[in-house]
Amino acid sequence: MSITVNIYYTGENGTARKFAEEMMNSGNVAYIRNEPGNLRYEYFFPMEDPETVLLIDSWENQEAIDIHHDSPVMGKISALREKYDLHMKVERYVSDNNMTEKDKAFIRQ
């Protein structure tokens, strides 16, 4: 049962996008993607809100998230959030991996 956390970073004057770019360019994203238990770490840009960046962050379990939260990279992330004065909205989902046949009928492979 994996856990996915959607984090919406919102700033002003393009700061959320600059944050995501610095996360990528600094190597922080590569570091996180290589942490044990990380399944996905990707940024997306909502078409209707140019001041927000969506991070989709998935982990194998809560233990992997806890280890990530105790890692040195979290201090770097917190500093960048402050640097760019970002505000956050967080959604957390637990995967059941039980897609029905009816649901599958709507997915084009």
Order of adjacent strands in the largest pleated sheet: 2-3-1-4
**N to C succession of SSEs:** EHHEEHHEH
Query: What is the CATH architecture annotation?
Result: 2-Layer Sandwich
CATH uppermost class: Alpha Beta
Summary?
With 109 residues, the protein is of the alpha+beta class. It is 37% helix and 28% strand.
How would you summarize the topology of this molecule?
Layout: E1 3-10, H1 15-25, H2 28-33, E2 38-44, E3 52-59, H3 62-69, H4 73-83, E4 87-94, H5 101-104
Antiparallel strand pairs: 1-3, 1-4, 2-3
Q: What does this protein look like?
A:
37% of the residues lie in helices and 28% in strands. The protein has 109 residues and is an alpha+beta fold. The protein has a single domain (3-96), classed as Alpha-Beta Plaits (2-Layer Sandwich). A hairpin with a 7-residue loop joins strand 2 and strand 3 (52-59). The longest helix has 11 residues, at 15-25. The chain is globular.
